[in-house]
Amino acid sequence: TARFFWKTANQGFEKYRNSGCDRKKGYECIKEAIDNIKKYSIESGDFKTHLNALPHNNSWVKRFLLQLVEWYLLGVSEGGARIEYMNINLEHIMPEEYKKHWWKYLQENNPALTDEEINDKAELYIYKFGNWCLLPPTWNKKGSNFCFSRKKDEYKKFKSPLWENKNFKEIDVSEKTIWNFEQIEKRNDKIIEILLNEIYKDK
């Protein structure tokens, strides 16, 4: 199943990482697993569904896929890009500890939803591609729980095309005044569209 391939990709990369092997081997391991998912999807399902169902604990696969999107946005070919995903942080824009740090903010910016609905959506949307960005190791993890306006001020220092992108308004977060479930959904759809129609279209 697709879940099996995702798990294989993440475990395979962890093996190479922990043994100190060349990161290119880890890269090839994830690449092969994703190609298998694509093949499986063509035969028995929908690749988009499998991308959206990526288990939240597959952090290395997330980094890999988001870096492919970042390279695409930068206009850099996969073969000519440096493999950096071991040296980048996967950051959740809406934090995982949203109940402690963002609960009032989510209530204010999703007025049509009950508290139960907000909680249910937050548990799902935290792990969507639309709520992730890539940041360098210099990013202070204490900032992960900052309010949205403060995060914007911090993120813009890193010049990431996954954060600030005038050519792809759906992906650009820097100009957003609020960060709610609708914004995450729109950004998620665009990232998935790039993965499907640009990066993996010929796979």
Report on the structure:
A two-stranded antiparallel sheet has the order 1-2. The protein has 203 residues and is mainly α. 31% of the residues are buried. It has 9 helices and 2 strands, in the order ααααβαααβαα.
Quick structural gist:
The protein has 203 residues and is mainly alpha-helical.
Percent range of helical residues: 40-55%
Radius of gyration: 17 Å
Number of strands: 2
Shape: globular
Structural class: mainly alpha
Low-confidence stretches: none
Number of helices: 9
| Strand order in the largest sheet | 1-2
Biggest beta sheet summary: 2 strands, antiparallel
Summarize the helix and strand pattern as letters.
HHHHEHHHEHH
Strand content: under 5%
Distance between the termini: 18 Å
The whole-number mean of residue pLDDT values reads 77
Features:
203 residues, mainly alpha, two-stranded antiparallel ribbon, 9 helices, 54% helix, 4% strand, globular
Helices and strands, with pairings:
Layout: H1 2-18, H2 23-44, H3 47-52, H4 59-74, E1 89-92, H5 98-101, H6 103-109, H7 115-125, E2 132-135, H8 148-155, H9 181-199
Antiparallel strand pairs: 1-2
Helix pairs in contact: 1-2, 4-9
